[in-house]
User: Fold this.
Amino acid sequence: MPARIDWVKERLIPRLFGRNSTATAPGNAFRFRGRWRLGEKSIEGLISLSGILAIVLLLGVLVLLLKEGLPIFSHTPPWEFFFGTKWYPISEPPTFGVMPFFVSTIMITAIATAVAVPIGVGCAAYLAEVASPKVRETVKLLVELLAGIPSVVMGFVGLMLLSPLVQSIFHLNTGLCGLTAAIMLSLMSLPIIVTVSEDALRAVPSEFKEASYALGATRWETIRHVCIPAALSGISAAIMLGVGRAIGETMTVLMVAGGALAIPHLPTEPMTTMTAAIASGIGNAVRGGLQYQALFAVGLILFVMTLSVNWVADRILERQKRKFAR
Amino acid sequence: MKVKARSTRRLSQRTAFALLTLATAIVVIPALLIILYIIVHGVSAIDWGFLTQSPSQAGKSGGIFPAIVGTFYLMLGTAIFSLPIGVLAAIHLTEYAKDNRLTRLINLAIISLAGVPSIVFGLFGLGVFVMTMHLGLSLRAASLTLASQALAMVITTSREAILAVPREYREASLAIGATKWQTVRHVVLPQASSGIITGAVLAMSRAAGETAPILVVGAAFIVPGLPNSPFDQFMALPYHLYTVAAQVPGMPKSMMWGVALVLLAVVLSFDIVAAIIRSKARQRK
Amino acid sequence: MVALGLVAVLAGCGGEPQVQDGLSGSFNIIGSNTVTPLASVWAEDFMKAHPKVSISVSGPGSGVGIAALIDRTTDICQSSRTIKAEEVAQAEANGVHPYEIQVASDALSVVVNPSNTVSSLTFAQLSAIYTDQITNWKEVGGPDAPIVAISRDTNSGTHAFFKEHVVQSIDKKLEYGTKVLFLPSTEAGVSEVAKNPNAIFYAGLGYVTQKVKPLAIKKSGDSAAILPSVATALDGTYPISRPLLFYTNGAPDGIIKAFVDYCLSPGGQEKVTEVGYVPLA
Assistant:
């Protein structure tokens, strides 16, 4: 069933199988027929320019973050910025320490991933190996729908439905806490983990499974000892993508994580992630002012974190491609 | 290794499968619950007036027409800015690029862009479009920001669509004397068009649902008329939902669910359209 | 359609309000969440009277409005706190001259859940609550339950005003405690108080509904405890009252002046009471 996140799968599955993502057309063997049209040449120039646009854009984001964010370090030394615990942007003098936000992001991401991975991979295994085609199509459609729900709607649902529930179950002062945010985030990471893992599992060559059955293994034993290990790289990549998604999510945590400034010790405390800190502070910040710089610096940290996670996912797939090279 | 009795193995298989089914249920049930809950609670707020009037009394009554229009303008603007460049970039990568360092860098850049958080794109849009290019808080700045975010997705889907065109088509075209660009324009692109359109529709659907970037770059709470030009501030459904859920005193609950429902309907209908286009294309092949 | 869109996009200039003869044109108001309900009602009425004028109103906080004024991305900044000296300096450096107009007043109300038995607090107690010094309701005469202190985030003028006038009333150096919840909107705070028996929050008078209970405030231990209302704000007996302000770049003219004149007129001031705030005396 066509999926909204097919585009992610289609980015990864070719890597798994070594499908060459660069030119396949015999263009390189093209011989000029003597009729040079200026139009053709300028179109090709435009195309080449567009080609490097992705790099330009990425560099642009990085350069902007550096340009607007680095100056904060002349006000607050990096050590104090990263490890400081007080974020008082409008006080005199203002102090900027991002440790509470960093810990909150890590805590919420860790919980969301810990919840989403077993469920997601389990669901993927079910879809790939156990479910009948009709069930599989229906479930995949529902997963698609889940993926399509905008984050602000998830935040809204979390605010109205989940937070009172969490508050009463855990006897908390308020349901606006990291746990509520983590649960909503895990729902949001599930689709990507399920779809990518399911594709990875389906991609396991049938010879592997047949060999396992031939040895007398049950279906579950095959799944557990053959399919999942074989698909491990795809599954790891799926997990990384889920992690990246959780780190970068803004609206949901802004609406339900509570907004407290302390370093959280428990997930049931209200907290503020880095994304929420940026979103709630950026309107207030005068361009070029200290708070503006500090928020861009937080953006820079986020950028580096999500970039690393995505690159790791990419390296895993590169290595897998070489391992399974045909 | 101790050999387990067949019955034990069957039991563990049954248990395992039960757990897997449970996992699937945990994925499916919340999705259904959330969507159904929104429909049930939002439908009471939806009537013709809600959809076609402007908000009044600070949003407590009246309708959300400007937000719907604003969202559609944003989707259009995103498509206009990201499609042409994205498709051209995809053509470069599939038809013209050599397998060298630069190409690998481009691919790396695309993967990186896909992972950048939306709030960081908001910062980017703020710094570049709103401030440096002096576009102010406007539809234009917001569309450009969302288009930057969509670019990676558009390039990837277009690239896959173009790659799916069989080699024989290209070879046949070149064999009858067409130039490379002519081949691309008259043979490859039309064949890839449904895939490219799917990507565009998905990008638009995503643009409709994004809040963080537009929070930073231009959405307003009440804009009574429609934006007169791409240079004005605008309302948009996701920002409106965020605001009414959180910013206005005494907002009737049904209104909030109504906004959520409309937003969900817009986003999901575009997703479904994309899915239909894609499955029709697959059937044709 | 694509071509039309491109043309529309490429043509045209910046986002300045076009002021023409007769009342037509557009401008925007950005800033305080507290003032937003009021400004929206004013904007709506003004646009009804002058159909060719278009006004856009948005929050989410005074700080945002002042930043927008300094950056010239807004025409009117609505604020629930006065502009600070450094902000004026930043504005002047950017060629903007903030011009202050008081349009209404507000009695900044402290609200708790209706089931809470506490009905009055002093400034000192409020300051201690919001700096994590007092953490249980029994310390201020209420039930034995932890206090959930809720505040607006730093975007908010209300946050800044409360900090300066209440939290820092006993010590200028105090900061909000780290256990305080900073919510991005006033409505979120009010609804949390409405459903949480242990919550406390502060908001403009216009946000006080039947679902929450305002506390009577004593400036010090021996002064009278006064409930917030239009009357007590007008006669000055309520200790946490504050002006609600518009800031423009220089004295307003054209349609902005017409709009401000309307807000300050008797008809406009009637709306203030309707929305729940305190009209100018």
Q: What stands out?
A: Chain B touches chain C at residues 56-59, 76-77, 80, 130-131, 134-138, 140, 219-225, 228-233, 243, 245-251 (CB under 8 Å). Chain B has eleven helices and two strands. The domain at 49-284 of chain B is CATH 1.10.3720.10 (MetI-like fold).
